[in-house]
Amino acid sequence: MQLRDDQIERYSRQLILPKVGGKGQRKLLAAKVLVIGAGGLGSPCALYLAAAGVGRIGIVDSDRVELNNLQRQILHSTTTVGRSKVESARLRMNDLNGDVEVVPYEIRLTSENILNLIKDYDLVIDGSDNFPTRYLVNDACVMTSKPLFHGGILKFDGQVMTILPAEGPCYRCLFPAPPPPGSVPSCQQAGILGAVAGVIGTMQANEVIKYIMGIGNLLVGRIMIFDALNSSFRQVKIPRNADCPVCGDRPTITELIDYELFCSIAEGTQ
Amino acid sequence: MYDRATDKLAPGARGDILHYAVGFLQHIQELYASMDSSFNFPLQEKITQKSETRVNELDLRGTPCPINYVKTKLVLEELEFGAILAVLLDEGEPIVNVPRSLKEDGHEISGIEDKQGFYRVVVKNGGGKK
Ligand SMILES: [Zn+2]
Fold first, then answer.
1. Active site residue B6
2. CB B74 to CB A16 under 8 A?
3. Whose CA is closest to A89, among A150, A44, A55, A133?
4. The domain at A17-263 falls in which architecture?
5. What ipTM did this prediction achieve?
């Protein structure tokens, strides 16, 4: 596959990079990634992936764009308020880069549909805003050995971690089970600074791009924690947990679980 | 050729003939391997280009920085290590920047020829296919 002249121009600033070049660009153009959530994290992540020329980007979200989303969900705009988020996302991403095939999924993820959805993709990006989806995505990715790019945000903090099943720890190695309903403030009550979502979603995109091109070191076996008020990053090493209920030596979770949705106010998705 | 390769020949001559026959067979095999899906052989010039008998030339006159450099990089990526590529570059910014950037990438500039109005830069590939 030869790059067209307009592609050489469009991607010139990354083609110039010693570790990217035409080879890296072709890998990006051939990649298929699935973004869970067209919200605060999914927005910057999907935009950077589209800009970089990732060939196929699936995007899952069942919500419609609301005015209060626009403070952080930069995929959407005032003119798309009321429309489905995935459709709004598709318009924006295609406007940015016509090389990208955007596949919108206006659905709620469940244990019934997730495996069928992720099987056509090389990797999954978790930009969800709630624990039921986060655990469902983690378990489905571990069970099918799909690379998963986790991101989470709350108030002024964020975290990023890359999960390569069998190579490093998964989300459950760190947090074996979701917190009981009511123990964590709901997304609506907690609030979030838009730029914090931008930092975390952008770091997820950066991890994905490195993974696709096979360069650098990924956040596997370590979690990056961002403190926005202090403008500081902290890294914590996490070993794979041999007692992890899903990726451990004797897994107790062998089927997907639909946890009760206790944070129903949509931040990213679902 | 085959019926002359008899015992009557000197051992050295027999070796030469055998060597020729093996080479000929290899050439035929390569030719068949390069056949496309509709059983056509590639044009002769493509084969000779592949065997590096002529220097690849990239005309980047009129292509601004940094696209000229990017295009050179993309071509070098596809060539073998040590392959020679001649690049035609405009005077001014291109001839100042492109050879320098190529050198930083580990390629060797083996010659710069002033062609009056443009330059012909000969690059020896320091990277290439891996
Ligand atoms: Zn685990």
1. no
2. no
3. A44
4. 3-Layer(aba) Sandwich (3.40)
5. 0.80
